[in-house]
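RECORD TYPE: inverse folding
INPUT: structure tokens
STRUCTURE:
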């Protein structure tokens, strides 16, 4: 029988960026907060002298154990979904801080267009720009309303950047730190795109360009450009993550407790409110019930949706009738791009996760789509994140895929290849959604989450268009040769693409098409909040973390208001 624990003011399920932000803000406001973390505790000291590409980049040392918890996958409702047994397309984080520990640090604000995408698309192109198979919707909040929360997240994370992107929304202040160091690779991309009439700017980075103390007194150290960012924790404390920013802030208040190895299996409801959660100690397998006045789902996109589903909270989306909201609008991203090969050598073995230069001329609605069969676009970038030797083997077209010729070409081109990358937006389609699998269960007897997803005509058209732009930029650099990404067909869970899964618990202004309101408060259960990239109604050409962090500050503000007055916040 589950042991019942003393009630707290606020309970967060998951302690990553969103859970850490909510905890810090609520604890600073005097609320008693408990954070339940499925994984182990960890800190910067755990990453000292562990630049081990094989352990972390190849064998996913910081990632979720799929033998205990995974998802099933299929391309369409007609197929049988099967469990994903090895990480590939996306990398689910594990332990304290979650994916916010092993991320690269790209930190963007979504465009004003993103938040009002349906309204703005119809205003410019009419109501029939996309077919009715696409579930386009506004977010129920504007960029201007979101701006203060973006600003707060950037100051907390000490973002290094420059406010010179002509396509971005208005800012109340500059980035708190100057950009990371420039390099010959980035200069080449900048000079080339300028000559082509585009508008390059430095990538906003959560890799600290200098010594920085954030408004809560947490310190970030200068980046060492060691090239071990993505899939690694930072041993220098130079990459902003929950474990070096918001979690220490919350703990300092004395109002916050973290319980590790606590896997939540059910949200407990009484009447039209939740009363707490049931969780399992993953070490002892003992069950506990933690009571709370307010419950916040702040784990990864997929787990937030699953917990609502297994707890029977909200109406599951049905693609046949298109009714229901839970699981709807699941979106991913696209990765077109071109690699250029040169005779000149570059120090590609050095870098930082977000050491880059971008253009947004083909992102959002920053270019005319009137004669194109897609909407939105892609970030296009030059990046020097550091080419680690095991997974970095760029070779020109026609090179054998193995043997002595491959080895020779791989060694020669390792320092002579520059990539022009693209990151494309993803629009919601009525047949792309999340649900519970009727067959497979996790290690605790709960149904696995089932992902039904495939690329659409919109995706393929956007991918083709952006690939052409990256080819043009690469050719303008005067390389010896180029190789472009192959055109996409069907989505697969291998190989790696990005951990930019979004949707399933969308926000909005109407409970008919969203799960939560614009304070991330559940429409059906007023003391339940759900926050993260699952709130996105579609995916942008940008990385999701900056927008998810801003939403977490919005959510925390709503929780504090709700604790004082109760009721619906909108």
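DESIGNED SEQUENCE:
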């Amino acid at each position: 029988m589950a042991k019942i624990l003393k009630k707290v003011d606020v309970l967060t399920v998951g302690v990553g960026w969103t859970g850490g932000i909510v905890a810090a803000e609520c604890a600073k406001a005097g609320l008693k907060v408990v954070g339940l973390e499925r994984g182990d505790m960890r800190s910067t000291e755990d990453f000292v002298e562990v630049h081990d590409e094989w352990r972390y980049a190849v064998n996913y040392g910081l990632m979720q154990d799929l033998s205990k918890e995974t998802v099933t996958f299929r391309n369409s409702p007609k197929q049988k979904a099967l469990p994903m047994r090895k990480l590939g397309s996306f990398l689910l984080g594990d332990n304290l801080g979650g994916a916010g520990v092993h991320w690269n640090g790209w930190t963007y604000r979504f465009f004003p267009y993103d938040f009002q995408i349906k309204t703005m698309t119809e205003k410019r192109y009419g109501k029939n720009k996309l077919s009715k198979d696409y579930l386009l919707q506004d977010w129920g909040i504007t960029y201007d309303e979101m701006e203060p929360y973006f600003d707060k997240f950037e100051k907390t994370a000490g973002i290094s950047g420059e406010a010179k992107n002509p396509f971005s929304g208005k800012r109340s202040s500059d980035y708190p730190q100057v950009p990371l160091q420039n390099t010959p690779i980035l200069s080449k991309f900048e000079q080339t795109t300028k000559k082509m009439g585009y508008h390059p700017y430095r990538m906003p980075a959560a890799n600290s360009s200098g010594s920085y103390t954030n408004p809560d007194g947490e310190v970030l150290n200068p980046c060492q450009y060691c090239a071990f960012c993505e899939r690694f924790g930072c041993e220098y404390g130079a990459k902003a993550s929950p474990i070096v920013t918001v979690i220490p802030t919350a703990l300092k208040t004395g109002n916050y407790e973290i319980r590790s190895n606590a896997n939540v299996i059910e949200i407990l409801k009484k009447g039209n409110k939740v009363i707490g959660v049931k969780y399992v100690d993953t070490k002892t397998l003992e069950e506990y019930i933690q009571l709370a006045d307010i419950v916040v789902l702040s784990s990864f996109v997929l787990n937030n949706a699953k917990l609502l589903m297994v707890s029977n909270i909200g109406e599951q989306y049905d693609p046949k009738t298109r009714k229901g909201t839970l699981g709807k609008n699941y979106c991913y991203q696209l990765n077109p791009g071109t690699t250029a090969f040169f005779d000149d050598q570059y120090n590609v073995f050095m870098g930082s996760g977000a050491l880059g230069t971008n253009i947004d001329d083909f992102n959002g609605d920053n270019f005319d789509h009137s004669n194109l069969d897609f909407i939105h676009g892609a970030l296009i970038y030059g990046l020097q994140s550091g080419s680690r030797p095991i997974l970095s083997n760029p070779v020109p077209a026609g090179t054998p895929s193995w043997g002595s010729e491959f080895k020779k070409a791989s060694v020669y081109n390792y320092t002579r290849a520059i990539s022009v990358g693209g990151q494309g937006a993803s629009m919601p389609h009525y047949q792309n959604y999340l649900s519970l699998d009727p067959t497979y269960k996790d290690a605790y007897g709960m149904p696995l989450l089932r992902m039904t997803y495939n690329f659409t005509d919109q995706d393929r058209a956007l991918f083709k268009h952006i690939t052409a732009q990256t080819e043009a930029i690469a050719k303008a650099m005067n390389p010896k040769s180029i190789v472009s990404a192959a055109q996409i067909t069907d989505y697969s869970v291998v190989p790696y693409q990005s951990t930019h899964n979004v949707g399933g618990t969308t926000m909005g202004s109407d409970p008919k098409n969203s799960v939560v309101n614009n304070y991330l408060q559940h429409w059906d259960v007023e003391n339940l909040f759900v926050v993260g990239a699952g709130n996105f109604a579609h995916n942008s050409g940008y990385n999701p973390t900056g927008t998810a962090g801003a939403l977490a500050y919005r959510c925390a503000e709503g929780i504090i208001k709700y604790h004082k007055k109760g009721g619906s916040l909108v």
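NOTES: Residues 3-565 form a domain with the FAD/NAD(P)-binding domain fold (CATH 3.50.50.60).
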